[in-house]
Amino acid sequence: MRFRDRVAVVTGAASGIGAAAAERLAAEGAHVLVTDVDDEGGAKVTAQINSGGGRASYLHLDAVSSADWDGLGAHVEQTWGRLDVLHSNAGRAIAVKPAHELTEQEWQAQIAVSLTAAWQGVRTLIGPLRRARGSIVLTSSVHALVGLPGHPAYAAAKGALCALGRQLAVEYGPDVRVNTVLPGPVLTGAWDSVPDKAREASIRATVAKRFGDPAEVAAAVAFLASDDASFVTGASLVVDGGWSVVRDSA
């Protein structure tokens, strides 16, 4: 119960890693504010947490909307007046194509949802995070470390998140710790449309020889957000089953 009586906000929490992180933080005692643009999915995650004895509430949040963030900030201040954990997890791949084929709109949209949204969270919530001497965990990706065809904007945003995490750690320490988690091939809904051959190649390219589970990333998020990581800040933690240290081109 590392988060007993603490408050956590998780963005992009209607499914995948965000949902798993919300469930893990709640299981360890936090009241979790589940946020997403997917109201149905977010409400389902919230109901699952509450039915299992946890504490959660749901708030619609378009992570690229300043107005939505301002509303969330007001809700946090009025309801709790503090915030112990912000897991900035919102993000998705907008377009898979080489850089010269991306439209400006596609580029800007990717940067907005994968990078600017994290800044919006800090801009909005740094006050209550400082009062609680809280923790921020950003969700980046192994795309920050390795180039893969067709993901220039996504890789740029995820790489920038690691740099942003370091900068924020310096900017707001010692009051707030900031760390970044870099998932590799984790089995979420994003893989549903990926051909079997590509899925098998990703599995072969890991040391673990399997996909990761969102709960395994959530465990890393909970560690970084908890007092167990009290001397860890500005770090980038790779959770990829060894994908980034070995290659199988077959």
Fold blueprint:
Blueprint: E1 7-10, H1 16-27, E2 31-36, H2 39-51, E3 55-60, H3 66-79, E4 85-88, H4 104-132, E5 135-139, H5 152-172, E6 177-183, H6 196-204, H7 214-225, E7 236-239
Give a verbal description of the structure:
The protein is α/β, with parallel strands linked by helices and 250 residues long. The chain has one domain (7-245): Rossmann fold (3-Layer(aba) Sandwich). It is built from 7 helices and 7 strands; from the N terminus they run E-H-E-H-E-H-E-H-E-H-E-H-H-E. The chain has helices at 16-27, 39-51, 66-79, 104-132, 152-172, 196-204, 214-225, and strands spanning 7-10, 31-36, 55-60, 85-88, 135-139, 177-183, 236-239. It has a 7-stranded parallel beta sheet, with helices on both faces.
